[in-house]
Amino acid sequence: MHKAGFINMIGSPNVGKSTLANQLVGDKLSIITSKAQTTRHRILGMVNTDDYQMIFSDLPGIVDPAYRLHKSMMNYIYQSLSDADIFLVVVEAGEKAFKDQTIQDKINSLDIPIVVALNKIDTINQEELDVKIDYWKSQFPKGMVIPVSALEKFNLDSLKNVLLENLPESPAFFPKDQFTDKSERFIVSEKIREQILKVYKKEVPYSSEVVVTDFLREPNIIRVRAEIIVERDSQKGILIGKGGNKLKLIGTNARLELEEFFESKIFLEVFVKVDKNWRDNAQKLKKYGYEN
Ligand code: GDP
Ligand code: MG
After folding, report:
1. Closest alpha carbon to 148 in 162, 135, 138, 169
2. Are 41 and 60 in contact (CB under 8 A)?
3. CB 119 within 8 A of CB 16
4. CB-ligand 1 contact for 256 (6 Å cutoff)
5. 9 Cβ inside 6 Å of ligand 1
6. How far does residue 38's CA lie from ligand 2's centre (Å)?
7. What angle do CA 178, 181, 185 make, to 5 degrees?
8. What is the pLDDT of residues 195-213, one digit of tens each?
């Protein structure tokens, strides 16, 4: 009997969805930073064995839309409510309540198994944990609450086992040698965006998008050319930095990450371009792969 299905991860920003997804899939597929709204797309990551295929959807966190880009991010979440075989609700130890009552009600109303991963339990003690487990059980009565620490890889096997028990009988949806639905170019652009999120404070990362214009595999090296798109000239200046020092730092760090991911030498060129107010323009969002 073969099992396969879509496990859609839903939760607030910063609760550790991407960290958990990467641990479960066993690869640094989704970028992770301490900033909210790091994940903008729906990213599928597969765990394949002879007997099953788990397809994890790492999703953006639930946000109150301020930009058109946020609406597009929320659309990924709404879509994921309708095509899940299992809801993997991710909450964290410090979280007081689920972020969105409508989404919570919807999840509870559907006839789909719910697993609640209570993450970051490395940050609380046993007493606090007991209280938290009771609370989340009351919020998702049909669900099973599994305490985990994605960061410290604690209890992830139990989580995987519970997910496997709930996975429907089905043939595989993707070839077994595939572990993501995303292209190499997408992964490159995310790795560069991750460095932008790490190097700059608020405004620049949220206004940046990365487009990979070349990805060329040669026998001993992969040649990559990428453009960082920002909304304003002032942001371009900040991004490049004095004498280009900031851009250089991003390029170097991204290259090291990419070399690890692709297990290859990488030649990386990064340019900066201005595309006025791309985050609020439907056509531009489409061009950058949003407006789902
Ligand atoms: P997402 O926005 O839900 O995808 O969250 P991320 O996976 O990007 O993680 C947000 C932050 O929480 C990062 O700084 C992670 O290192 C941190 N984090 C994730 N899991 C854990 C955990 O189990 N324990 C602790 N202490 N921090 C965690
Ligand atoms: Mg994320």
Report:
1. 162
2. yes
3. yes
4. no
5. no
6. 5
7. 105
8. 999 999 778 999 999 999 9
Dist. CA 10–CA 176, nearest whole Å: 25
40 phi/psi in degrees, rounded to 5: -110, -20
Counting DSSP H helices and E strands in the chain, the numbers are 10, 9
What's the distance, CA 160 to chain centroid?
A: 18
240: its two tokens:
């490049």
The first and second tokens of residue 242, run together, are: 């004095």
Question: Closest Cα to atom 17, ligand 1: which residue?
Answer: 16
Side-chain-facing half-sphere of 223: CA atoms under 13 Å: 4
Which pLDDT band holds residue 35 (cuts at 50, 70, 90)?
A: confident
- Identify the bridge partners of residue 9 per DSSP, sorted by sequence position: 88
Mean pLDDT of 52-80: 91
Q: Where are the alpha helices (DSSP H) in 47-170?
A: 68-82, 101-109, 126-139, 156-166
C-alpha to C-alpha distances, 237 to 127, 190, 242, 244, 273, nearest whole angstrom: 50, 21, 8, 9, 10
Which of 94, 88, 105, 102 minimizes the C-alpha distance to 139? 105
Please state, rounded to an integer, the average pLDDT across all residues of the chain. Answer: 94
Query: CA separation (Å) from 80 to 6, 13, 84, 98, 264?
Result: 9, 16, 6, 17, 34
Q: Mean pLDDT across the stretch 276-288?
A: 91
CB neighbours of residue 215 within 10 Å = 17
Query: How far is 110 from 95, CA to CA, in rounded Å?
Result: 24
Closest to 206 in 3D by CA, of 282, 110, 278: 278
Is the beta carbon of 149 within 6 A of some atom in ligand 1? yes
How far apart are the C-alpha atoms of 185 and 207, rounded to whole Å? 20
Q: Identify the nearest ligand to the CA of 40 by its number.
A: 2
The more confident residue out of 165 and 37 is 165
Atom of ligand 1 nearest to the CA of 21: 7
